[in-house]
Amino acid sequence: MKAMIMAAGVGSRLEPLTCNIPKPMVPIANRPAMEHIINLLAKNNIKQIGANLWYLPEKIQAYFKDGSEFGVELTYSLEKELMGTAGGVKKMEDFLDDTFVIISGDALTDIDLWDLIDYHKDNGSMATIALKEVYNPRQFGVVITGDDGRIRAFQEKPEPAEALSRLANTGIYVFEPEIFDLIPAETIYDFGKQLFPTLVEKQAPFFGYQMDGYWCDIGSLNQYCLANYDVLRGQVKMEVPGNWHPDAIYVGERTAIAPTSRIGSKVIIGNNCHIGHGVEIFGETVIGDNCIIEDNTSIFGSIVWRNSRIGREARLVESVIGSECYLKEETVIGAGVILGDSCVVESGSIVDANSKIWPKEIIRC
Fold first, then answer.
1. 258 within 8 A of 275, measured Cβ to Cβ
2. Burial of 166 (0-12, 13-18, 19+ CB in 10 A)
3. Domains of the chain: total
4. Which of 224, 253, 317, 342 is deepest in the core (most CB within 10 A)?
5. How far apart are CA 286 and CA 302, in angstroms?
6. If you write DSSP's letter for every residue of 322-356 in order, what string do you get?
7. What is the per-residue DSSP string for 51-120?
8. What gap in Å lies between CA 67 and CA 49, rounded to an integer?
9. Are 270 and 252 in contact (CB under 8 A)?
10. Can you list the pairs that 38-43 forms with residues at least 24 positions away whose Cβ atoms lie under 8 Å?
11. Tens digit of each residue's pLDDT (9 = 90 or more) over 48-93
12. Cα angle vertex 323, ends 322, 329, to 5°?
């Protein structure tokens, strides 16, 4: 069994977090989203993996290399221009020579892939979509199926009162190689807009599999934060980096935590961190590798990326701080703030709630 990870997207809705890295490299619980997907595939003994790349491809290649460090074999398909979801898969037709799995590199899930594959094969399907019931369909493309599981139609982000289904398309698919006969070569071609309507029109064996388990699309800033929080709440079956402590926190290697600090449950602290005296960390919070949190700082429900420094007596509430930022002493970061990489917040400055700050900005206010 082979798989392909869709990893070419820009991630504009995640800006400013994706100004310097592609969306699959955005960290969830201190690991890139794509690493969680690779770990899931390896856990399901799917170890021959392709990935299409376009935006900042060198970042993904430098981290994952040939995949051997992660127990898999990685093959890359570099796109000179975005070919669309189906068009990107078509470029890997020679690699995907038997039943294969497609999975997004910018989602978090613990789906049972072999249950999905068995469902696909038991139905003699050419194409199968993994579906997840959602509360608010207006955020998703939803799928209408018959009693037999065959896909009948689609709705794109319907209002709840108009929704014919609450089953969201997760972007996780199983295909037979015959699908390539329906995708034109060297053409921008999309699953949702072109291939799937064609399958419905042709009455092809096209099924929807209603998945159990966890799934979250991290395409927006709110969803990105939610995915991290859900890991900390134990809602996702996955390996969390760090050593488990009895007070329900994960702490990385070579991290020093002052005895006078107070840290609540549901916290992840990365490797090589320093947590100073009187620091308070509560709510679902992630601190990346190589971070320095100086004395008497308070952090609540926030995500701090690697190599960042938070000065003494700073205050962070439900915010995301990018890599290599420096928040000097007595700064206050309001709820909903997104701070891009390499920003400096000068001493005593207050960043208003819901602000988005682009990388390398110096904030004095």
1. yes
2. middle
3. 2
4. 224
5. 7
6. -TT-EE-TT-EE-TT-EE-TT-EE-TT-EEPTT-E
7. EEE-SSHHHHHHHHTTSGGGTSEEEEEE-SS--HHHHHHHTTTTT--SSEEEEETTEEE---HHHHHHHH
8. 9
9. yes
10. 38/5, 38/64, 38/67, 38/70, 38/72, 39/70, 39/238, 39/239, 40/103, 40/109, 40/110, 40/111, 40/113, 40/238, 41/3, 41/72, 41/101, 41/103, 41/113, 42/70, 42/71, 42/72
11. 999 999 999 999 999 999 999 999 999 999 999 999 999 999 999 9
12. 80
Within a domain: 27:
yes
Pairing between strand 267-269 and 262-263? unpaired
pLDDT one-digit tens code per residue, 141-187? 899 999 999 999 999 888 888 899 999 999 999 999 999 999 999 99
Cβ(268)–Cβ(241) below 8 Å: yes
The whole-angstrom separation of Cα 171 and Cα 179 is: 16
For residue 270, is pLDDT > 90? yes
In this structure, how many other beta carbons lie within 10 angstroms of the beta carbon of residue 308? 24
CATH code of the domain in which 264 resides: 2.160.10.10
Average pLDDT over residues 10-15: 90
Question: Do residues 258 and 183 share a domain?
Answer: no
Residues 215-269: tens digit of each pLDDT: 999 989 999 999 999 999 999 999 888 887 766 589 999 999 999 999 988 999 9
Report the 10 Å Cβ neighbour count for 219.
19
Residue 288: its H or E element: none
- Residue 162 CA to residue 130 CA, distance in Å, equals 22
Q: Please report where in the chains the tokens 């915010």 appear, as a residue.
A: 319
Helices H, strands E: what count in the chain? 6, 34
Tokens coding 163: 């929704």
Give me the domain span that covers residue 160.
2-232
> Confidence class of residue 32 from pLDDT cuts 50, 70 and 90?
very high
- The identity of residue 294, as a single letter, is E
Residues 77 and 237: their CA atoms lie apart, in Å, by 30
The pLDDT value recorded for residue 30 is 96
Residue 222 per-residue DSSP state: H
